[in-house]
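Lay summary. Proteins are chains of building blocks that fold into shapes, and those shapes determine what they do. In this project we predict the shape from the chain. Here is one chain we studied, written as its sequence of building blocks.
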Amino acid sequence: MDYSPRYGRFRALLRKIRKEAGLSQSALAQKLGKPQTFVSKSELGERRVDYPELLDFCAACQITIAEFDRRYHKALINIEPHPKRRSPRKMDSAGRVTD
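And here is the predicted shape, written in a compact code that computers can read:
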């Protein structure tokens, strides 16, 4: 799946806190009461993580949600915003489509 760079940083931080906690994907999944693929797909972006799940991830990795949020915002500092998409159509100054 093709997510934004912001979500990529979010997923990278999920993986980082898991590793810092010394947990394998299987060990984290066991703490969460989920299959290992749940953790894998969450880290790879094959499934989105909602807020209650984030709280569970943080608790299992023994990190506060405030610390996760601080680190996430720090990771976003140098991210470029998405460029605006341009319409493939050409318009004149009156807003009429031209060829």
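What the prediction tells us: The longest strand covers residues 90-91.
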